[in-house]
Amino acid sequence: MINVKSRLKKAKKLLKSGDTQECKRLCTEVLLNFPQNSEALRLHKAAVSAANPNLATVQKMQRLFDVWDKKAIKIELDKLLRKFPDSDVVKNLAGAFLSRSGDHPGAAEFFVEAAELAPTEIGYLKNAGIAFYRAKKNLNAMQGINSALELEPENSDLHAQLGNVNAALNYFDKSIISIDT
């Protein structure tokens, strides 16, 4: 049995010190055993909020992407990566920037980091798979796409991506099955 009181006390201290990842981990441990624990829910929500930029910042980044102001995006991303080092949202934005800039191996690294921070976010796994595919690291691509398919097995876009990876690996029989699924 876990000591809920001491874990939540430690989580509160971690949140105040800025260690949002460890705070979320401790809160998740408590919530797995006591899903209705209001203090664990509150601390977890606060840690998630503290680890990510606000909506206005994300929208600003989207506008920069829309006009593809590469210099401004780089400047803002560098600021965000320093301010929110544990943000899945910022890691995903960095991956998108590198992917669009043609640095697919670098993009894949950021997408993997985003997926590690938010393991149920299918988009990050898919993005990692696509970036690995474009970097011609097809076994890594297959792993990312298969992980996403475990979460959403009926996703036709993921099956199409898996078909592309299988074809690149000369697994043509699996490629056809993936696309037909």
Notes on the protein architecture:
The protein is flat and about 55 Å long. The chain has helices spanning 4-17, 20-33, 38-51, 55-67, 70-83, 88-100, 104-117, 122-134, 138-151, 156-168, 172-180. The chain is mainly alpha-helical and 181 residues long. The chain is built from eleven helices and no strands. The mean pLDDT is 90. 80% of the residues lie in helices and 0% in strands.
What's the overall geometry? flat
What is the tally of beta strands? 0
Order of helices and strands: HHHHHHHHHHH
**Strand composition percent:** under 5%
Question: How far do the termini sit from each other?
Answer: 44 Å
What average pLDDT do the residues reach?
Answer: 90
Radius of gyration: 19 Å
Low-confidence stretches: none
Content-based structural category:
mainly alpha
Helicity range: over 70%
- Count of helix runs: 11
